[in-house]
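agent: user wants the structure for YciI family protein from Pseudaeromonas sharmana. delegating to structure tool.
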Amino acid sequence: MFIVLLEYIRPLEEIDALIPLHRAYLQRHYASGHFLMSGRREPRTGGVILASVPSRTQLEQILQEDPFHQAGVVRYEVLEFVPTMTHKGLEAWQQA
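agent: tool returned. relaying tokens verbatim.
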């Protein structure tokens, strides 16, 4: 499981122009089951994606498809973690 932190490195006007393409990218990866949750950071300095993919290598390939990445408007920080406890109803995401 991965937490991807996005940091905007260009003005918000450039980010906003790419939002429709970025959302279409997110939708593709929600449909594939790779992304579980996403949203913007507050204050609006970037975003967060919760991802479930088999490997960091695969996640990095997925992130290269992001229109934000392709336009060079964000920087990513990837945190890998092993969820060992969850809220009731999310037990399927726990790992040993």
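agent: one observation worth passing along. The two ends are 13 Å apart (CA to CA).
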